């Protein structure tokens, strides 16, 4: 949906590229449709080993996404207090609130914040809806931030592991 922004992230270089990765990850958590794995394509050229650069990308992206998630969490807390917002969403053509509450309540009741972290680990899946749905149901900012950090980092690590497995399988 925002190919220019994804292209900017992919071509990010130098230490300022990490800032761009943080901003992109922050925005992807609450405002942008899309997936966060794009950050793994950045060619930063930081003068560090490839493993260290990748670890920095994962950390900065997870931190940015966690910060964006906390912002979304705050919006969810405010929306929870706003009767007109909830009424509008409940009366919309697609009852997003009912669907997301049903799925999220199941995950939250069964696994709590660990369930949120696990849901965010699914590579390739836009997770903004999960973040907002969970934010309406829960109230602990610190646990929410930790769960989104772990889930975001886990997602990128799983993506890297899957990509490595695929390239190894095909001898690339």
TrEMBL record:
Keywords: Membrane, Transmembrane, Transmembrane helix. This is YqaA family protein. Residues 53-164 form the VTT domain. The chain crosses the membrane at residues 12-32, 44-64. The keyword Transmembrane applies. InterPro entries: VTT_dom (IPR032816).
